[in-house]
Amino acid sequence: xxxxxxxxxxxxxxxxSNQLVAAGLITGNLFLYRYAEDSExxxxxxxxxxxxxxxxxxxxxxxxxxxxxxxxxxxxxxDIETGSPVARLDNxxxxxxxxxxxxxxxxxxxxxxxGCIKVWDTRQQTCVNSFQVHEEYITDxxxxxxxxxxxxxxxxxxxxxxxxxxxxxxTQSEFAExxxxxxxxxxxxxxxxxxxxSGTMLLYSWGFFKDCSDRFTALSPNPVNALxxxxxxxxxxxxxxxxxxxxxxxxxxVIQPIAEHSEYPVERLAFSHDRKLLGSISHDSxxxxxxxxNLLQDSxxxxxxxSAADSDDxxxxxxxxxxxxxxKSSKGTKRKNNGGSKGLDxxxxxxxxx
Length: 354
Hints:
Shape: globular
Strand order of the largest sheet: 10-11-12-13-29
Number of helices: 1
Order of helices and strands: EEEEEEEEEEEEEEEEEEEEEEEEEEEEHE
Radius of gyration: 19 Å
Largest sheet: 5 strands, antiparallel
Number of strands: 29
Distance between the termini: 34 Å
């Protein structure tokens, strides 16, 4: 199933319970489509969300609202029924908003090009914390709910772990020559996997984030722009050469191309709410919806596996990293550190109307 967006898309997200998919475009537009198995997808919403491109898209509030982030430094909340703006924060970050990720039912995190990560609480209707840990733009983020740890990768070549319970940056990895572009948590929360600019996949053991414990080079030399966990031992990877591949990380390191989006880089991947469809976007202006069972018919397994929170291992290395942050890398231009983890940001009142 294909949706011609007519412009390049930077991000996509599926509704948490309905057959809806949202896409943020280079034009600043937000599109919302309804899809069904036996019919063509229908666009049900078009919103001019931002003056500049729409880089990040996430459903919140049980799917009633869509958040979008942009290089114009704003975050917009849009009602999906009416298309009307619910709230807009015009100065959410000092630089472009590059990533949005859901945390809990009432909190989300945003990552900016200045390297800052912010946590927004819809109940307190404001930004409740900032982590100025990175020197360069945030490339990806993922969240582990049991430990309340937010993992982020950055163009400065490092991975950070922020503890949302203590509101502190727990640790930051040493500088890696390969710029990390994507990250997922695997093996029931015992491993974090980063896709990089060189195509190498870096494997980190939970609690030992200073340096990677292993490397996987099967996708080299194509940058791994997007990673999506299929189960605890396999990920789906979107790479610069337009391929979508199934990668067995642990224990058997195998790679199997399962689809070709186009000749252009695959930018984002996402599962539908029922995990029957895989969505992919690239620079060809097409949003593709793939049937998961068809893609995996030769892999021998169906979609499944435990969540990262359902650890069944007795490893005792879960929190070995200390709160000490290693020296910043020398890569790129030094950026001003705004004091690391901050308290309540009283200047921001983004969710006042949610």
